[in-house]
Write the structure tokens for this entry.
Amino acid sequence: MSTKINFTIDGKNCSADKGMFVLGAAQKNGIYIPSLCNIEGLAPRGSCRVCTVKINGKLMVACSTPVAEGMKIENETEELHDLRKQIIELLFVEGNHLCPSCEKSGNCELQALAYRLKIMAPRYPYQFPVREIDASNPKLIKDHNRCILCKRCIRAIQTDDGKNLFAFKQRGCKLTINIEPSTSAAITDEIATKAAKICPVGALLKKEVGFVQPIGHRLYDHLPIGNTASLNIISSREKDTNT
Amino acid sequence: MSKKITIEPITRVEGHGKVTIKLDKNNKVTQSRLHIVEFRGFERFVQGRPYWELPVLVQRLCGICPVSHHLAAAKATDILVGIGADELTATAEKMRRLMHYGQIFQSHVLHFFHLVSPDLLFGIDADPAIRNIIGVALKHKDLAVRGVLMRKFGQEIIKVTAGKKIHGTGAIPGGINKNLTIAERDYFLDGKAIPSVDTMIEWALDTVEFIKSYQKENRQFIDGYAAFPSNHLSLVAKDGALDLYHGVLRAVDAEGNRILDDIDYSEYYKYIAEEVRSWSYMKFPFIKSLGKEKGWYRVGPLARLNTCDYIPTPLAQKEFEEYKSYTHGKPNNMSMHTHWARLIETLHSAERIKQLLNDPDLQQTDLVKKGQKASVGVGLLEAPRGTLFHHYQINENDQVTMCNLIVSTTNNNEPMNQAVNWVAMNTISGKPEPQITEGLLNGVEVAIRAYDPCLSCATHAIGKMPLEVAFVDEYEKVISSKCKNID
């Protein structure tokens, strides 16, 4: 019995291995579906909903829906474009995202998605929440102004013995990422670097490092998010940096 | 009954300002004040942010001289990461200098060609409809094109060193995040894509010749307008040379006597204090030893050429000698000569840029250093319009707990007030029926513009600068007023 699944995305015939999720399956077929909370190698959570697509006429989340034979998936439609745009706009107004002075600017997935979706100004009023930054850890700074609660850090960062270093604290609009006090001391330079890299928005920053990547050498400086060619360009530019 | 007339010409000063002129029963001016009426809160809202964000964050004080704030903050954060200004790598120090001289060059060109030249070419009483850069472009096309290309050159220098023409990220605590590639260097040297640095030097020389000729033909105006004695303050190199990036703090009085004798600027607060006055949001700095009344000083091109001993590039030095001979070596206290000084500095900047572009250190790869962390950092440099102070304190978690910024405009607060007072005393005081004319409104701006085309860094501004001039009687009652750009 074949393990290949056949389906279409925006009318294009695609195939993928059985058990793959729609998001990864689309990627294998060269099709980009925007996403924020998803990260390769970790179980999907479907928490940000940016990867919402229409499957057989119903709105579903691409990161956590397995592909099935004969699926008709819609991705690049006006309706879905606007839906994703609204989600990104809501994330912008709900936090304090001061892109111009943010260390993550140019490497930020939220910012890059806003550019890709051509957001000029959000349609919703800014909330301007009062949020403190937590700089008490010797290796990391947590800037809650920028956190979009994607849970990537909680899911990806663990100690050698499998304990989580990050956890949610409180509920509702007061929900924040918390560094587990019992494991806080285990945060090394390597873990801090990994956490800062895995955070899509610059809510987690490695201490004492800022703006070391020149403008023009950052991930989304030249091509929008979702364009794999941008990665090749960056690596070739890195080689030229100091010549 | 007071009368209020609103006029809306194009203005060439950015920021918010209000001038009140007090008249007695005989219409004699008894007091003139330049009020800065908007509040800007950078010193407060950087508190809590991590220190390495400062160079990028605080440069948003200004869109004309962001590089100056970027570098002053970077110099302060160097201290925070344990690197003194003399300890930067050669590449880092020279890349920053290249960025800074690009900034001085573009800003001085903007100041002179775009904002000041309309006053000189058309006269301060000319119709405001033509007394602007568009008027210059229509009537003196070559001059306007040159101004645009010179500014572009400076902006391109900033772009290759900072990453962007406005609000870049090149300077980081302890160094710089990129060097200059050979291709980037040649872009400025070969003259293929843009006029070369040699052309910039040639054009800068021409512009100095222009101001010298203008001064000879309009001596009464240039020498006399808003002239008054004052102290002068700036950084100078340790050997007394003009140095716009780094040095020691020197101040001289109107006669040239030293008030501050080449002090370490990290201890500026021992020598300089700031006075708050109830009628303005801009503070009034003064040299402590002279007190509030006599301790105010000027900063900027005029002050710098008054404090330095020489200019370390040959063409600018030659012009400096001619400029100094006009006042027989004594400090120059003529406000409008600031433009002459500014153009000599423009020439000097072009010469320095050429030297730096030809320096192979810019292609080296040792960019950043770190030392023993400190909790207090002070960074000073000479911004286009004068000495710029950045002073920060951080806590054990690397967060900013205190920030004090004394920007060039603030340093020139009292001199600008003095200049406005001069205009009031010399144009309306004692006249039977003093009128607030367009000439008076622009005359006030001309006096301010000699120091600054922009009040926004010291205050807050969105869009055009509203300027209101009001006559008030001895009981503070408004007799008449006129406004620009107030809705």
In short: The first strand of chain B starts at residue 3 and ends at 7. Chain B has 16 helices and 16 strands.
